[in-house]
Specification:
Elements: H1 4-11, E1 28-30, H2 34-59, H3 67-87, E2 93-101, E3 109-117, H4 119-140, H5 144-166, H6 170-200, H7 204-233, H8 239-266, H9 277-280
Parallel strand pairs: 1-3
Antiparallel strand pairs: 2-3
């Protein structure tokens, strides 16, 4: 007689053991979509047209009064190059981030995130923000030492932001970010305190204008690290959102700032006039001489 229990045991497959290693998820790619690309092209056009307008405005005033026009035109010119590079797909890198997911009763897993980093934007900022600071410093009448400190602090802020954007580990990333914020505090000190005090020594119109445009600039610049923190930093905002946020700030901080500065400054009856090398080049007194013409043979 056949034992049904024995037969059932014979035909029952052995239990499958639980895997000891659980594979991670599919890699996550955080990239710009068509919306982001269209935004880059739109800002490229805005920067290009602004640059042309600023150069035209420069040629409508004597060379002695062109300092602000040339600096402002250079700002939007470099921004034009940067946005063109990003729009055509150049000036873009990828940061690979490994995110650990801790499981309670299972082995840890890892998510791999590949996020686009627009390094051309940092190249742009490393050139344009010192020029913008120079605009403000010359308007206020800051001394050379204060200008140098502000510009160096600004470059440190941009470079540490770039290092943070490409850093893989979270702790070093936020360490770079903290250094950038400290450098920005130095810029704030020079623009908001030293600059405003120096501008007050000039006429009331210049002092009021500096307070307005300097405050406008610092408000915009303070939003940049906030966007960085929620975009490149914590990755809570998409690449498209990052592009749009920076695009709005760049348009306000460059073309809008520049047009406001040039139109208002040109209306000042006592706008600065720069002579010497800026207007006339190297005169006889500034030429380099080798030997002495009066020396006898």
């Amino acid at each position: 007689m056949i034992d049904p229990v024995a037969e059932l045991k014979k035909h029952t497959s052995a239990p499958v053991p639980m895997p000891t290693v659980i594979p991670g998820n599919t890699p996550i790619y955080q990239e710009a979509s068509a919306t982001g690309h269209r935004t880059l092209w739109a800002v490229f056009v805005i920067m290009l047209l602004s640059s042309l307008a600023f150069y035209v405005m420069a040629f409508r005033v004597p060379v002695q009064k062109r300092m602000f026009h040339i600096l402002t035109a250079f700002i939007t010119t470099f921004a034009t190059l940067s946005y063109y590079a990003m729009a055509v797909g150049d000036g873009i890198g990828t940061n690979k981030i490994k995110i650990k997911q801790t499981q309670k009763h299972l082995p840890d897993t890892y998510d791999i995130v590949y996020r686009e980093v627009y390094w051309a934007r940092y190249v742009d900022w490393s050139v344009t923000t010192p020029l913008l600071l120079l605009d403000l410093a010359l308007l206020a009448g800051l001394n050379g030492a204060s200008i140098l400190v502000a510009v160096v602090a600004d470059v440190i802020m941009i470079l540490t932001g770039l290092f943070a954007a490409f850093t893989v580990d979270e702790a070093p990333k936020w360490g770079w970010y903290a250094m950038a914020c400290l450098a920005y505090l130095v810029v704030i000190y020079q623009v908001a305190l030293n600059g405003r005090q120096t501008a007050k020594a000039k006429d009331n119109k210049t002092a009021a204008f500096y307070a307005a445009i300097g405050g406008f600039t610092l408000v915009l610049w303070t939003i940049y690290p906030i966007i960085w923190g929620i975009a490149d930093g914590s990755r809570n905002v998409s690449v498209d959102g990052e592009i749009i946020g920076y695009a709005v700030l760049d348009v306000l901080a460059k073309p809008v700032f520049g047009m406001w500065l040039l139109i208002t400054h040109d209306n000042f009856s006592s706008s600065a006039s720069i002579e010497g090398f800026w207007a006339n080049g190297l005169g006889k007194e500034g030429t380099l001489r080798v030997g002495d013409d009066d020396e006898g043979a």
